[in-house]
Amino acid sequence: MKVIEIAFTVYPVNDLKRGRQFYEETLGLKASSVFGGADKGMVEYDIGPGTLAIGCGAPNFKPSAGGGCVALEVDDFPAAIKRLKDSGCKFVTEPTETPVCRIAVISDPDGNTLIIHKRKAG
């Protein structure tokens, strides 16, 4: 077997409607595909060459703060942080500067963690 790319990353959510509100209204993502119904199913968000999805309804697919994490590259880090703070988003790690990037860690309404990220030039 030869793996050629990551097809998509998916996070489980407990409430698909609430999850969509967070990913679409708070993060500003646009749904590219919707599978299933309003309560159970999966929603995909195409971001650059990758896809982030949220899903609800599979019995062994549960949200977890200690699970995986996705880093979302943003074009304007200060504006992204302001938007998230204004929306009342929970910050797990406040904005931090490293030698190569700026990062903050947030959680969605189900406790899944996401990194808000901006690479430095060079």
Mean of residue pLDDT? 91
Elements, N to C (H/E)? EHEEEEHEEE
- Provide the spatial order of strands within the biggest beta sheet: 1-4-3-2
Strand content: 35-45%
Number of helices: 2
Weakly predicted, low-confidence segments: none
Determine Rg (CA atoms, Å). Answer: 15 Å
Can you give the helix content as a percent range? 10-25%
Q: What's the β-strand tally?
A: 8
Keywords, separated by commas or semicolons:
alpha/beta; four-stranded mixed β-sheet; 122 residues
Helix-strand blueprint:
Elements: E1 9-12, H1 16-26, E2 33-36, E3 41-47, E4 50-56, E5 69-73, H2 77-86, E6 90-97, E7 101-107, E8 113-119
Parallel strand pairs: 1-4, 5-8
Antiparallel strand pairs: 2-3, 3-4, 6-7, 7-8
Can you tell me about this structure?
This protein has a four-stranded mixed β-sheet with strand order 1-4-3-2. The protein has a four-stranded mixed β-sheet with strand order 5-8-7-6, with helices on one face. The protein is of the alpha/beta class and 122 residues long. The mean pLDDT is 91. 21% of the residues are buried. The protein has two helices and eight strands.
Overview in brief:
Helices cover 17% and strands 40% of the residues. It has 122 residues and is α/β, with parallel strands linked by helices.
